[in-house]
Request: fold
Amino acid sequence: MSDEEKKPRNPGTVTRGGLGALSGLLAACAALAVAELVAAAVRPQAGPVVAVGGAAIDRTPIAVKDWAIRNFGTNDKLILQLGILAVLALFALALGVLALRHRRAGAAGVLLFGAVGAAAATSRPDSTSVTDALPSVLGAIVGAGLLYVLVGRLPAPPRDVPEGPGDGWDRRGFVIAATAAAASSAGAGVLGRVLRGSSGQEAVASRKNIDLPPPDSRAPAIPRGAQLRVAGVSSFLTPNSGFYRVDTALVVPKVDATAWRLRVHGEGVTREKTLTFEDLLRRELIERDITLTCVSNEVGGPYVGNARWIGVRLADLLEECGVRPPSAGGPADQLVARSVDGMTIGSPVEDVMDGRDAMLVVGMNGRLLPFDHGFPVRMLVPGLYGYVSACKWIEDIELTTFDAYDSYWVKRDWAREAPIKTQSRIDTPKPFARPKAGTVIVAGVAWAQHRGIDRVEVRVDDGPWQEATLAAEDSRDTWRQWSYAWQATKGGHTLTVRATDRTGETQTEKRTRTVPDGASGWHSVVVTVE
Reply:
């Protein structure tokens, strides 16, 4: 073998760039894996992806949020996290290439991303300690060190002069270091996931050990005929597993019910209270069927559901604390509910105390609240959109005024007060369905919580409005099913529905978007009759 053949050979520029990019990607994976592992010990919400994702949600324009909810539904949080990871991967690739010529600059870039994650974690509303910065900081240090080591195993830039014996690269060392880094990252990531899952075991155990007492005031039996026997119509009671979820929590809080506390304080509160979960269960429990609606629900959208809730009357608790509504001379017109994840939701005190079944909820459809829906306790006020009434994982109630404080969504240009608008939806036939000519049952649901539905009408194409048959009413706080027997003729047709509530108000034809206080307009579907 000649001396020339014995010389180690430098890879080409393209191959070298690819190895640098791979080094950056491996460093980023290691940083995230270590951060995940440390976050499991500190607090799951302190992980960099969750922290940066939460900060991104807070700063995302409303139009973009609406677009995400419309297009991705309850998967919007997963899409956000995947997007963050994709952006991180691109920057990691770029830092790896940069480090080929400037090792320290590449490593510094990784540290910079760690600083961003640390800043996001410590600035979150639910952050209570600087230790929330640890996952991002330690992850970044590991990632920066790994990038520095890996790039050090790669060759110097190709030169036009013949290679000397010392111009080769540590191919074996690079492969060993890269393989070890990948394996260690995978192991740390898996361990972090396992530990994060176990970090909520106390909360899971506390939930398993609770027997939900029977309500002192039971909901009336659902009337016969409230559920239509029509295929495709929503179930009158929405099962817990199918109930919509719209919130900003990238990691669902798992709260230990034995450690949970609720504080009631603020303006007009003459007797502050701090309650435990057991305190709530010992109070009078009421059971009510109530339909909830998200303000992000577009016309005809899915973010509405009906459940049987068990809880404590909120008005009774407030009265015990000395609170009076504004109509009775009370100084506070806003109730601010705070969640364990830092969310703030403002509700009109007058509505909470006007006799409706506003409650602190502990049960849903005969079972304890699921974690996704606010265990151990959430708030609920019939007739108001969720963003001004339905605080999940609640831990604090403060009485104040609308002039003195803007809650989370109000700061983002949503309305301070938002009674649910009268709406109706066609569930069947579905859009672009192809039913056979003859009798076709058009059916769906209509809602005007705390007012009730008085009439539903259906129009075929541009014809006259025809009154639909209403199903039996459970209460004015629940949705109401309806049906219309349509004598369908062949061809394309547009079916439109509108509802009228008990105040005599018919839902408007005028289409508005969800911002600032809920969508309006008539729901229509286009079908082709064969």
User: Anything to note?
Assistant: DSSP finds twelve helices and 18 strands in the chain. Residues 1-8, 160-167 have pLDDT under 50 and may be disordered. Residues 4 and 214 are 88 Å apart (CA to CA). The longest helix spans residues 13-42.
